[in-house]
Design brief:
CATH class of the largest domain: Mainly Beta
Shape: globular
Strand content: over 45%
Distance between the termini: 30 Å
CATH superfamily of the largest domain: Carbohydrate binding type-21 domain
CATH topology of the largest domain: Immunoglobulin-like
Number of helices: 0
CATH architecture of the largest domain: Sandwich
Radius of gyration: 22 Å
Number of domains: 2
Helix content: under 10%
């Protein structure tokens, strides 16, 4: 079956006042989804402190079946003289992973200054569910396996942000574009861990796949301590190269498989136990031909 969907189309989920909802366009795996939320749906935590707005509304989005979580604010901040004096609605745009079959989402209105305040829009705890269409997901031959004995503990360890980038690092001449290729894939992951003891280790098990779902790289990388964080936690980060692809100079080529997907699991060892957020994280990359 061929989908009659414009390649640049973005499906939009409208959450309207009076608890109404409308979907616009198809939600397609591998493309973006836009979330449009009316703040009137949640009005329980509207706090103002010394002239500043100190509340927020965020969307929490879960991509099934893998369980990847994404979240982001649904409000644009307006500053006057350096003070946050206004908030206006904005859409949240997210990329739908190419293995997604359903999207689950809910909304959180909260404030922390002046005492904790939390209000939820979750369809009375059932959350909102959206079907995803598009080409069949790629079947990965050897996904990163869950380490036996690791304890699912998202309250002990979780990912704050991550990104993967493929770059051509071949030196460019003083003027013009590079005449060769040296493709490097780098990963940046920032995590939060519960600081229950001084001695601790944080690492990730990582695989890289080509577009056909074949594993082309496997490695384990330690994360370095970056600093203390709120909630009696510590920040750890990995920022480095995870795969070296094709290299090419005039008259010479060293071919390597095209890196299309970076997949990893996160682990945290402390006091004799190994904890994990239990999420199989994935990030897609552009093809070599367009890098």
């Amino acid at each position: 079956m061929t989908l009659d969907i414009n390649a640049t189309a973005v499906g939009t989920l409208h959450f309207l006042p009076d608890w109404q909802r409308a979907d616009e366009g198809a939600i397609v795996r591998g493309r973006d989804v836009s979330i449009d939320f009316a703040p009137e749906r949640l009005t329980g935590c509207r706090r103002n402190w010394r002239g500043a707005e100190v509340w927020d509304i965020e969307a929490i989005v879960k991509f099934h079946p893998r369980g990847e979580l994404a979240r982001g604010s649904l409000l644009e901040r307006i500053y006057t003289g350096g003070v946050l004096t206004g908030l206006t609605p904005k859409r949240l745009d997210l990329s739908v992973p190419s293995d997604t079959t359903k999207i689950e989402l809910w909304f959180h209105n909260f404030a922390e200054i002046g005492g904790r305040c939390d209000v939820w829009d979750s369809r009375f705890g059932e959350n909102y569910w959206v079907d995803v269409t598009g080409p069949n997901p790629v079947d990965l031959r050897d996904p990163v396996r869950y380490r036996e004995g690791a304890i699912p503990s998202p309250n002990f360890v979780n990912v704050l942000s991550h990104s993967a980038v493929k770059r051509n690092v071949f030196p460019a001449p003083p003027s013009g574009s590079p005449v060769g290729k040296d493709l490097r894939t780098s990963l940046n992951v920032q995590t939060w861990v519960q600081n229950v003891a001084f001695a601790k280790e944080v690492w990730l098990d990582l695989h890289v796949f080509d577009r056909d779902g074949n594993r082309i790289e496997a490695a384990t990388f330690p994360l370095r301590w970056e600093g203390s964080a709120g909630g009696e936690g510590d920040l750890f980060r990995f920022d480095g190269e995870v795969y070296r692809g094709v290299t090419a100079t005039p008259g010479s080529v060293s071919p390597r498989p095209n890196a299309w997907l970076v997949q990893y699991r996160l682990y945290y060892a402390v006091e004799g136990q190994i904890h994990t957020d239990a999420v199989l994280h994935q990030l897609e990359l552009p093809d070599d031909a367009v890098t």
